[in-house]
Design goal:
The chain is α+β, with helices and mostly antiparallel strands and 549 residues long. Helices cover 44% and strands 20% of the residues. It folds into four domains: 185 residues, GAF domain (Beta-Lactamase); 100 residues, Beta-Lactamase (2-Layer Sandwich), CATH 3.30.450; 86 residues, Helix Hairpins; 151 residues, Heat Shock Protein 90 (2-Layer Sandwich), CATH 3.30.565.10.
């Protein structure tokens, strides 16, 4: 019976080729150091040869050897099964150690050890005290990751050839290397799958996602799509997007969308859709075509963000802006009518008062003449105020922009102010000014007011005024600088408000509208105005006007 069993199992030897035995001294994975070091010194094993198993000479094989061979076969079988079910490297190595221990249970003190990535697995913590070992390297993609070893006393291995043990270890090492390689692949795939699931979760939390085929039939929708549209995935898949069509967009809009996608280009835009319950919602949409090797779309990925609330607020804002524009138009029209209608009776009052003073001059006492002078001065101030209000109201009136040569315009302004300039002995210098797009009479008002302010708020010395300009990439920045009384820092923002005065009328004449008009003119031209000033040094007023496109 024993010999018959041996005949059946002895073929396992043929499975193991008689490759070169891995000498522990030559093996780079052999432990360096002495016996006291856990990384064991591998002395070259001295094996006593034993006759190789011969089918024609079975008498040379004893029962102990045969049992060990069968145990090794069983060990390899069990290890292969464990590799199919175990996913932890620690658990697998401990299991292999157990199986290898069973393989040599007939041989006495033989101890297996596995080293992988600086981790050691063994059944005996004192294994390093043994003198002899041989091993097989564990290779993963041609990289040495560890070794499989057995340790024993020399006296315990005098019965058999070491080749069988070497091949046995190499088979375990090879299988372990393949297991590690597959584990790396599976771990990588698991990590990638985990990342994909996290991305999908993030998309579900924020974005509406859909995938369609090239005909526009829905292949996939995420949960966000279902919750926003109120359709289930079963109701959506197989349909096209007409199921949520609101009818809001024109045929030209839809045609442009599909034309863009058919060319393999990404389409972006806002779409109004209709949910299952009939309510409408807006989505900011990006549709990306997936192209085949020929460059033709075979499917489309659409990512949408719901912007219904944003669109509602946008519409409300547009309505408010329209209402504000209407109110401003009405206010400006009202101001124009009022100021225009007030001018005529005011001129009449002023004329009659002056006539009264002329014809009754010799008949009135000094007190009466003073009162008449106050009336004349009051009507004059009222006339100036009405004129300024009329100018202010007309700034936003619809006017066609035209090219304006600021160099020529400034020359005309200075000519109109020549009398005032001569009276105060002003010195005026200027840069060469550019051509801008604007409304001529408003720009005249702008330069006139700023230069007049330099005349009005002069100090004891004659005014020195410079009109300059600097160029930036998209605009011109003009400046009107003077050496006047200057402005306190806390008033720099207030001065551009209507009816803001920093001085009494006795000190400086004016209605307090001039700089407000300047601000309105500049903003109407798409620019901004600001001032830099230092008391008793002077002021520089800056304003920007966009360049001609």
């Amino acid at each position: 019976m024993f010999l018959e069993r041996l005949h059946k199992e002895s073929g396992w030897i043929e499975k193991f080729t008689r490759d070169k035995f891995l000498d522990p001294v030559e093996n780079p994975l052999s432990y360096p150091g002495g016996k006291s070091n856990p990384r064991i010194t591998a002395h070259k094993a001295q094996f006593i040869s034993n006759p190789v198993l011969d089918r024609d000479n079975l008498s040379s094989v004893n029962e102990t050897e045969t049992h060990e061979k069968l145990n090794k076969l069983a060990c390899l079988y069990e290890i292969s099964r464990d590799m199919l079910t175990i996913r932890s490297i620690d658990d697998l190595c401990q299991k292999i150690i157990e199986q290898m221990g069973l393989a040599w249970r007939c041989s006495g003190d033989v101890f297996p050890l596995i080293e992988i990535d600086n981790q050691c697995f063994t059944s005996n913590e004192f294994v390093h005290a043994l003198e002899h070992q041989f091993s097989a390297p564990i290779l993963v993609k041609e990289e040495i990751r560890g070794q499989v070893c057995i340790f024993y006393e020399e006296s315990n291995r005098i019965r058999w050839s070491p080749d069988e043990d070497a091949v046995f270890l190499q088979n375990i090492a090879n299988d372990l290397g393949l297991w590690l390689e597959q584990k790396q692949l599976v771990d990588g795939q698991t990590a990638s799958l985990s990342e994909i699931r996290m991305i999908e979760r993030a998309l579900d939390e924020h974005a509406i996602l859909a995938i369609t085929n090239k005909q526009g039939k829905i292949k996939y929708v995420n949960q966000k799509f279902c919750s926003v549209s109120q359709y289930s995935s079963e109701e959506l898949i197989g349909q096209d997007h007409r199921i949520i069509n609101s009818g809001y967009h024109s045929k030209e809009f839809i045609r442009n969308l599909w034309t863009t996608l058919a060319k393999g280009e990404t389409w972006k835009g806002e779409i109004k859709n209709r949910a299952k319950d009939g309510t409408y919602y807006w989505v900011d949409t990006t549709i990306v075509p997936c192209l085949d090797h020929a460059g033709s779309p075979y499917q489309f990925v659409a990512i949408r963000t719901e912007v219904t609330e944003y669109k509602r607020l946008e519409q409300k804002m547009e309505e408010q802006v329209a209402e504000l524009a209407r109110s401003n138009d009405e206010l400006e029209q009202f101001a124009y009518v009022v100021t225009h209608d007030l001018q005529e009776p005011l001129r009449t009052i002023s004329s009659f008062v002056q006539l009264l003073k002329k014809y009754a001059n010799n008949q009135l006492d000094e007190r009466a003449n003073d009162l008449i002078s106050h009336v004349v001065a009051g009507t004059s101030r009222m006339q100036i105020l009405i004129d300024d209000l009329l100018t202010y109201a007309q700034v936003n009136a619809s006017q066609t922009l035209k090219e304006v040569d600021c160099e020529c315009l400034l020359s005309n302004v200075l000519a109109d102010l020549s009398v005032t300039s001569s009276e105060c002995n002003a010195i005026i210098t200027r840069d060469k000014l550019p051509v801008v797009s604007g409304i001529p009479f408003q720009l005249i008002q702008l330069f006139t007011n700023l230069i007049n302010n330099a005349f009005k708020f002069q100090r004891e010395q004659p005014p020195r005024i410079h009109v300059g300009v600097e160029e930036s990439p998209d605009q011109w920045v003009f400046s009107v600088s003077d050496n006047g009384i200057g402005i306190e820092a806390q008033y720099l923002e207030r001065i551009f408000r209507v009816f803001q005065r920093l001085h009494s009328r006795r000190e400086y004449a004016g209605a307090g509208i001039g700089l407000a008009i300047c601000k309105k003119v500049v903003e109407h031209h798409g620019g901004s105005i600001w001032v830099k000033s230092e008391p008793n040094v002077g002021s520089s007023f800056y304003f920007s006007i966009p360049k001609i496109n």
